């Protein structure tokens, strides 16, 4: 019984890991408005690793920077 539960949790974890990798691969790259560094926008808010500018997603799908 315990082995079955562990196996079920392991399968769910593997499936969620594969789905997250697929989402990451197919996300588009957007340029940072400050430094033009291309970064992948996975969530609604993204921080540029180069210049530390925070980008926020708008309702139309574009990203803006706010200070």
Tell me what you see in this structure.
The chain crosses the membrane at residues 6-26. This is Zn finger protein HypA/HybF involved in hydrogenase expression. Keywords: Membrane, Transmembrane, Transmembrane helix. It comes from Ureibacillus thermosphaericus. With 67 residues, this protein is of the alpha+beta class. It has one domain (2-65). Helix content is 37%, strand content 24%. The chain has one helix and five strands. The strands form two sheets. It has a three-stranded antiparallel β-sheet with strand order 3-4-5, with no helix packed on it. A two-stranded antiparallel sheet has the order 1-2. The model has no long low-confidence stretch (mean pLDDT 87).
How would you write the strand order of the largest sheet?
3-4-5
How many helices does DSSP assign? 1
- What is the CA-based Rg, rounded? 17 Å
**Helix and strand pattern:** HEEEEE
Largest sheet: 3 strands, antiparallel
N-C termini distance? 53 Å
Counting DSSP E segments of at least 2 residues, the number of strands comes to 5
The best one-word shape is: elongated
Number of domains: 1
Low-pLDDT windows of residues:
none
Indicate the mean pLDDT.
87
Category by helix and strand content: alpha+beta
């Amino acid at each position: 019984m315990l082995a079955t539960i562990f196996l079920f949790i392991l399968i769910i974890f593997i499936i969620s890991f594969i789905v997250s990798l697929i989402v990451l691969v197919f996300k588009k790259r957007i340029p940072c408005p400050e430094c033009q560094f291309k970064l992948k926008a996975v969530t609604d808010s993204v921080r540029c690793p180069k210049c530390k500018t925070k980008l926020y997603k708008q309702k139309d799908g574009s990203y803006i920077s706010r200070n």
